[in-house]
Amino acid sequence: MTASHQVDITRICTGLIIAAVLGCALYFRGFFLLFLIMLVCALALWEFFSLFWGKSERIAGRICAIILGWGMIVLTWMNRPQDALVFMGAGFVLAAISFLFRWRVVENAFEPSGIFMAGLAYIPLLLLPATYLTSVKLLFILAAVSISDTSAYFVGTRFGKHKLWPSVSPNKSSEGAVGSLLGCVIFCTIYGAIFGSINFLAFIPLAIVINFFAQLGDLFESALKRSANVKDSGNLLPGHGGILDRADSMLFAMPVFAVVDQWFHFF
User: Are 43 and 240 in contact (CB under 8 A)?
Assistant: First the structure.
């Protein structure tokens, strides 16, 4: 068996474990789902900050961001999203205070403050819809993004010849991007025909929007890694990299779906 096949098997096995954990969370919901969201938030934030601060720098800032992120998630889960924004504001105030006391004595003093706020906006803020979307909706967006990623991987591996954006992600191909879009459209249309509350054809433009933002999220995280000169955000998930590597597409696609669904009520 070749090394590439070994990698594929590892990736598939890890993906099955992830799917099983997510399936249990969607079935039991409640505190099980809340715990999973908080765990993903903490691990993804740690990986995000590690891209800029290394593995062991600014530990206090990381812990502070995680606590603030948890506060945003728990309050939204308790149907108090207006209070969750207070934690976002508190993060800005803390970042401002840090900058205020450091700008005269530290070069580029605003940079860590900006990274701190970017982490809060990128991860816990974009994770908030996971606390209130129904299981049918969460399963839909999780599967749509997963199928988009999987289709891009296999189509790109098999047929990829033209680079999509080599300066951002040298391994992604235009063929893979098209395969991702087609896979997402097919899945969303079928899922909508079975579970949707409106005409299943309406799920085609929805799939296009979801896929666009999923690929945008993937490219954004790839650009972060390129700027930090690393291949993966972490190594927690064999065959996939880190938590952020697995969640990057979801972080962009899920909030967009949550907003669109408020207007058109797909389910």
Answer: no
Asked if 68 contacts 76 with a C-beta cutoff of 8 angstroms, the reply is no
Please, what sign has the CA dihedral across residues 68, 252, 155, 169?
Answer: negative
DSSP 47-97: HHHHHHH-SSS-HHHHHHHHHHHHHHHHHHHTT-HHHHHHHHHHHHHHHHH
- The Cβ of residue 126 has, within 10 Å, a number of other Cβ atoms equal to 21
**Could you read off the pLDDT of 16-29 as tens digits, one per residue?**
899 899 999 999 99
Q: How far apart are CA 162 and CA 165, in angstroms?
A: 9
Q: Is the pTM of this model over 0.85?
A: yes
> What does R_g of the chain's alpha carbons equal in angstroms?
19
Report in angstroms the alpha-carbon separations of 177 from 170, 240, 245, 256: 13, 18, 17, 19
152-201 per-position pLDDT tens digit? 988 998 898 899 998 898 889 999 999 999 999 999 999 999 999 999 99
CA dist list (Å): 179 to 156, 157, 162, 167: 8, 11, 13, 21
The rounded mean pLDDT for the chain is: 92
Contacts of 28 (CB under 8 A, 6+ apart): none
Tell me how far apart the alpha carbons of residues 236 and 14 are, in angstroms, rounded to a whole number: 10
Tokens of 214: 């999923």
